[in-house]
Amino acid sequence: MAKSVNKVILLGNVGKDPEIRSTSGGTMVANFTLATSDRQKDAQGNWQDRTEWHNMVAFTRLAEIVRDYVKKGSKLYVEGKIQTRSWDDKETGAKRYRTEIIVNDLSLLSGREEGSGGYSRPAASSGSTASFDQRPPASQDEYAQSSEISDDDIPF
């Protein structure tokens, strides 16, 4: 079978506050929309902005992060995959479709004042990005040992 790839990378703003729910099995799910904009010239040579809305779905730990830190207006960097699901409409019996981005990775790019929803960064950090690494933090001793460079580390 030939190799295939289903990967999406988006950078945009959240359209409205996320909807948080749990499945019958207890898995947390966050649904929200993300707007991306593209700029093109029209027939008269004027720039026109075109906004595309993406349906986003995050599960488990990422859903908790969305619940705690994401709100309308938040700027996000998202990696995920496209998935289309279908169902029969209960009222009309018609086949319905919804294309969604299943979130695999998420980085908050908004500052607190821009709608990051209560995320507070350490006072020493003045940058405006936050990425969620789920590895346990290293102790200061481990950090000091890992940052030491010896002559053996130099490649020439």
Short description:
With 156 residues, the protein is mainly beta. The protein has two helices and seven strands; from the N terminus they run ββββαβββα.
What do you see in this structure?
The chain has one domain: OB fold (Dihydrolipoamide Acetyltransferase, E2P), CATH 2.40.50.140. The model is unreliable at 115-129 (pLDDT under 50). It is mainly beta. The longest helix is centred in the middle third of the chain and has 10 residues, at 60-69. It has helices at 60-69, 140-147; strands at 8-14, 19-22, 28-41, 47-59, 75-88, 95-108, 130-131.
According to DSSP, the number of beta strands is 7
CA-CA gap between termini: 44 Å
Q: Which structural class should the secondary elements be placed in?
A: mainly beta
CATH superfamily: Nucleic acid-binding proteins
- Low-confidence parts, pLDDT < 50 over ≥5 residues? 115-129
Strand arrangement across the biggest beta sheet:
1-3-4-6-5
Mean pLDDT: 80
Helix content: 10-25%
Shape: globular
Note the total helix count.
2
Q: Which sequence of SSEs, written as H and E, runs from N to C?
A: EEEEHEEEH
Strand content: 35-45%
Task: Round the Cα radius of gyration to an integer and report it.
Answer: 21 Å
Q: Architecture in CATH?
A: Beta Barrel
Number of domains: 1
Q: Indicate the CATH topology.
A: OB fold (Dihydrolipoamide Acetyltransferase, E2P)
The CATH class is identified as: Mainly Beta
